[in-house]
Specification:
By secondary structure, the chain is α/β, with parallel strands linked by helices. The chain has 15 helices and 13 strands.
């Protein structure tokens, strides 16, 4: 039987990680992996997480299972973090998942159970794992225009024109903030126009929000999500704690579903719990419990928000430095988009050949579509990257 299996295609980012590890050059720069790093190149444990872990170590008396859908306190805390008071809590079903990826998988499985004929619409480009999971589940998929590669911003006219083609019951996957891989975000008026279109066409929004707090702030980054939540009869959300709490390896995520009524919400919640049972039984709890402790403790929460703001402002400073340095070296303002993008990523506009040259000649590693991780830079390496980009002709 096992000899009938085919070799699966290698993940390009994981391949890039191996190439970087194997590169003996001491001055190599990793801008490929989508993990936050500080100026020293370390992914730190946040202060509030450390403090919560110390408290948990003293107070925890059991490692028994939590509820099938996860600890209710965690689900409430995450619903409030993402949605605030934009929608009645009684309409929101929730289930804890192994990270944001687990939540995406959970939401897509729920769509498949509710409407097997639904088409999932993805931005072009999007995070590569989105189409990978959809293909794995055997679901229908379409793309809509999103990024203007010349202007390095959102092609909103193209996006709206394409989404006019959705059918009632189709699901439109949107990035809540800090679009991956482009860094180009929708404005609040654009979110409203999308809400109007979805209501007119009968489409259902599915929001992937993995970087809340990394763009313009916790509330600002959730503004589009909350706008839709306050207007749409149905909505699906996958949220991750990996980035904004730094608990990558703890796999803390949540799937949220806004139902038209409290009665339907109960059925949806039962289905989410059922899917947990089929996929992994009970969800992991350690990271989720730390997040809950932080969000429900005023002192821990204030310190977490302060450190998250330091992270956000640090990435903005790197963006502004890189944009200014490239403008100085090129004598052109064509790199101004870097300062206006938000989150960890920007698609820099290098060709695949230029990306290879950056790696081979300069030891600078980025994904083949020229997505670079801003958090992989510091004040010292920004000028190195800028000179390399100009050298290869970007």
């Amino acid at each position: 039987m096992l000899e009938n299996l085919c070799q699966q295609p290698a993940d390009k980012i994981l391949q890039l990680m191996k190439m970087f590890r194997d590169d003996p050059r001491a001055d190599k720069i990793d801008l490929g992996v989508g993990v936050y790093k500080n100026a020293e190149g370390v992914t730190p444990v946040m202060r509030a997480v450390k403090a919560a872990e110390r408290q948990l170590w003293k107070a925890e008396t059991t490692k028994s299972y939590t509820a099938l859908a996860g600890d209710p306190a965690y689900l409430d805390a995450m619903r409030n973090l993402v949605l605030a008071d934009s929608v009645a809590a009684g309409r929101v079903a929730a289930a804890a998942t192994p990270g944001g990826t687990g939540a995406i998988h959970m939401v897509l499985e729920t769509v498949g159970m509710a409407n097997p004929e639904a088409t999932i619409w993805l931005s072009d480009p999007t995070w590569p794992n989105h189409p990978s999971i959809i293909n794995h589940l055997g679901m229908k998929m379409q793309t809509y225009r999103y990024f203007d590669s010349e202007a390095r911003g959102v092609d909103f006219a193209g996006m709206i024109a394409d989404l006019e083609g959705i059918k009632a019951g189709d699901v439109v996957l949107l990035h809540g903030c800090c679009h991956n891989p482009t860094g180009a975000n929708l404005t609040l008026p654009e979110w409203q126009e999308i809400a109007d279109l979805l209501q007119k066409r009968g489409g259902i929004p599915f929001i992937d929000i993995a970087y809340q707090g990394f763009g313009d702030g916790l509330d600002q980054d959730a503004a589009g999500v909350r706008l839709l939540a306050g207007q749409m009869p149905e909505m699906l959300i996958a949220a991750s704690c990996s980035k904004n709490f730094g608990v990558y390896r703890e796999r803390a995520g949540v799937a949220l579903a806004i139902a038209p009524s409290e009665a339907i919400r109960g059925v949806v919640g039962g289905n989410l719990a059922h899917l947990n049972r089929q996929n992994f039984s009970f969800p992991p709890d350690h990271g989720a419990r730390l997040v809950t402790m932080i969000l429900n403790d005023s002192v821990l929460c204030a310190d977490w928000q302060a450190e998250l703001e330091e992270v956000r402002l640090g990435m903005l400073a790197i963006r502004e430095q890189l944009s200014a340095e490239l403008q100085r070296l090129s004598g052109s303002d064509r790199f101004g988009f870097i300062a206006t993008h938000r989150g960890m990523f920007s698609r820099i506009g290098a060709t695949p050949e230029q990306v290879v040259t950056l790696r081979e000649k300069h030891g600078i590693y980025m994904v083949g579509d020229s997505r670079l991780n801003i958090a992989g830079l510091n004040e010292t390496t920004v000028p190195i990257l800028a000179r390399a980009l100009i050298d290869v002709g970007v």
